Amino acid sequence: MKARLIIIGIFLSLATIGFVARLVQIQVTSEKNYYLDKTKKRLYEKAKYGSVLDRNGKVLWDKFYMAGEPEREKEKEVYYHKHLNGLSAILKGVVSSKIKDLRGQDCVSTVVVKPGNVPVSEDELIPCIDGKDVYLSLDLRIQEIVENTIREYVPKFGAAGASVLVMDPRTGQILAITSFNPEKGRYEEALHSFEPGSIFKPLTAVIALENGVDPNKRIDTENGKWQVNKNSANEKIIKDTHEKKSCDMQEAMVFSSNIAFGKYVIEEIGYEKFFYGVKNFAINENSDFPLRISHRGFHRVSHLRTQAAQGFGQSIDLTSLDVAKAFSSIANGGILYNPKLILEYGKDSAATERDSVRRVISTTENTRLLREMLKGVVDSGGTAENVKSKYAFFEFAGKTGTAQIIDSAGKYKSGTYNSSFIGFERVSDPHFVCLVTMYNTKNAGATVAGPVFQKIMEQIYLHPALSPVTFAKEYAPADSLCSDISFIGHTKPAALDKANGMRCNIRFDDESRNGSVVAQTIKRDSTGEYLELSLREHQRNTGRMPDVIGLTLRDASGMLEHLNVIYDGVGRVYMQFPGPGEEADRKSEVRIKLRESI
Question: pTM of the full predicted structure?
Answer without folding.
Answer: 0.72
